[in-house]
TrEMBL record:
Domain of life assignment: Bacteria
Annotated GO MF terms: transferase activity
Record-linked InterPro entries: ACAD10_11_N, AGP_Transferase, Aminoglycoside_PTrfase, Kinase-like_dom_sf
Domain Aminoglycoside phosphotransferase: 16-249
Name listed for the protein in its UniProt record: Phosphotransferase family protein
Keywords assigned: Transferase
CDD domains attached to this UniProt entry: ACAD10_11_N-like (cd05154)
Signal sequence region: none
């Protein structure tokens, strides 16, 4: 911090923040300024440091724009400073996670909750509107063949779980049907852009004083790909009339949220987000999101079967996977 020219003095008011299952978030003050430090878990995984470097690079690229995101203060890509861990400092976010708690006046005002939902779509369209090459991210991902790789990439991921002893294999009704439909109906044209990679309500912080997104958080899956898959991810995880409302926590249970058609319409209001992108294919992106997220969550179920994750967590996420594939099949039939 001293080398970066940041205010000096003792580190004070340090407190660990919740909200993540892997990375460590620590809020503190120094020299009259507040910071949040983000680093990997105590036991680093093989790709943790590279993921943190990528996160810091994206946040730096977005700084100064209108995408609601934590602002990067300084990053330390050197693993030797903190016992092998890459870390960065960012601005604290003044907001709340509506899937954890829903304060007043939002809890009792359906109109405010409706506007919160619309702003979730608006914040995503702001990200999709960013020219990734203009902000220095031309080499950040592999956009060529991105859509063509998706089904094979995630099918292979699902097959890899078979190496876990005790996992009986994927018992997912409609798996082959959904995969086949995705391959047969893949969009033929699209425009690359910055993808958050895990865009849903749990990764949004809302402002206390207005129904708006204060910050999009948890950028560990960000890349350069097709931003419409982020919109599909939001729609795939959007609270509906089924168990998905409970998964979205207090906001989902409170109701009053916009419909998926309203989300799409709000997203489409920003021309720079939709230019060169075919919103008529949004069903494909939503089904793809169901397919990918379902397979990701099935990984925890497989690890639970092998005794490497809590059984109750594995069972819960397997049920979510079944719900996602059920939603995908409903969309296909419709």
């Amino acid at each position: 911090m001293d080398a970066q020219g940041l205010p000096g003095g003792p580190i004070e008011e340090a407190v660990q923040l919740g909200g993540g299952t892997q990375n460590i978030l620590l809020r503190f003050t120094r020299g009259g300024r507040a910071y949040v430090l983000r680093r990997g878990p105590r036991h680093l995984r093989s790709r943790t440091n590279e993921v943190l470097r990528r996160e810091a690079r994206v946040l730096a690229a977005l700084d100064g724009g209108d995408v609601p995101a934590p602002r990067l203060i300084a990053a330390c890509p050197d693993e030797n400073v903190m016992n092998g861990a890459v870390f960065y400092l960012m601005t604290p976010v003044d907001g709340f996670n509506a899937t954890v708690a829903l304060p007043e006046p939002f809890a009792s005002d359906a109109a405010l909750r409706h506007r919160m939902g619309l702003d979730a779509a608006a914040a995503l369209s702001a990200l999709a509107a960013v020219d990734h090459e203009a902000v220095g991210l031309a080499d950040f991902g592999r956009p060529a063949g991105f859509l063509e790789r998706q089904v094979g990439r995630w099918t292979a991921e699902l097959e890899s779980y078979g190496a876990l002893e005790g996992y009986p294999g994927p018992e997912i009704p409609g798996l082959a049907e959904v995969a086949g439909w995705l391959e047969a109906n893949r969009p033929t044209t699209w425009r690359p852009g910055i993808m958050h990679g895990d865009y849903h309500l749990a990764n949004l912080m809302f402002a206390h004083d207005a129904p708006r997104v204060a910050a999009i958080v948890d950028w560990e899956m960000c890349t350069i790909g097709d931003p419409l898959l982020d919109l599909g991810w939001l729609l795939a995880t959007w609270p509906g009339d089924d168990d998905s409302a409970a998964i979205a926590g207090p906001l989902g249970l409170a109701g009053g949220l916009p419909t998926t058609d309203e989300l799409i319409a709000r997203y489409a209001e920003r021309p720079a987000a939709t230019a060169g992108r075919d919103l008529a294919s949004i069903t494909w992106y939503t089904v793809m999101a169901c397919f990918k997220l379902g397979i990701v969550l099935e990984g925890t179920h497989a690890r639970a079967c092998a005794g490497k994750a809590p059984k109750e967590t594995g069972d819960l996420l397997h049920s979510v996977t079944l719900g996602l594939f059920g939603r995908a099949r409903t969309l296909i039939k419709a």
